[in-house]
Amino acid sequence: MDLCQVTFVVRANVEPGDLLGICGDAEPLGNWDPQKAVFLEKDSLEEGEQWKVKVMLPAGQLIKFRFFSGRFLDEETHLCIINQWESGCSPRSVTPSDGKNVLDTGWLMSETELRLRLHSSAKPSVIMNSQKIESSNLRVKLSVIGLKDDSPSVTVSMSAFSRNEMYRPLQQHSGWLLNPQSWLEYTIVSLDLCNLQLVLDFEELKACDSTPVHVGFTPLLSSCIMEDGKSQGMLCLPIMKPGTSQTIGWVKGMF
User: Fold this and answer.
1) Residues 49-104: pLDDT tens digits?
2) Taking every annotated instance into account, which residue ranges of this chain make up the domain CBM20 (predicted)?
3) Buried (b) or exposed (e) across 91-113, using 16+ Cβ within 10 A?
4) How far is the C-alpha of 62 from the C-alpha of 96, rounded, in Å?
5) Closest Cα to residue 63, out of 16, 39, 28?
6) Residue 165: what are its φ and ψ, rounded to 5°?
């Protein structure tokens, strides 16, 4: 098995006497066993709390990992007591390749998760003003727009619920068909959730063999939710006609 050297660099403030470790799903990173983890060394040549370590990892293999802070209970056996794992829903990942592999992951930060649920209860979650557009034929898709190359990673997943089951389908290009007997939940995970531009696109499918038509969209800034300081609540947002500022309907959701 070919190996590549990967340099992990991270900035983090830790308590006096604590160390930073890295643990992952590869043998050199302990196979998620913290007692076999690799510990970083503080870089005295850099200003601030910068830590660094070089590890030989299998080339071409996707490796997931997380940082943690802790200290040795026993210096001889290196028995480690973990103070705090890097929180978040998704571990970091790297695929080592030939050449220079340097991971400067910035400050050790926590991911934030935002869940947006479209649920038809007494009233449908989507109401269209025009009778020409039937809500029962609408498909909906959530996207993140305006991301730059240096933006923090963002993951978007979707779950569909009914009375009897829950499943996690992949978002199709034309979106997911709204069903009054079920509800949809979108999960957005990011290190910087306050500055995301989200958009819900609505497409109408009049027949099974027809091409969906884009009939409307709803822009949503994640900062509008985060600024309220609430962990949950209701949203009622206008659906706009493409290319205009005309409101053609409303979408109601929970976060």
Assistant:
1) 778 889 999 888 888 888 888 888 766 666 787 777 776 556 788 888 765 555 55
2) 1-110
3) ebebebeeeebeeebeebeebbe
4) 8
5) 28
6) -155, 165
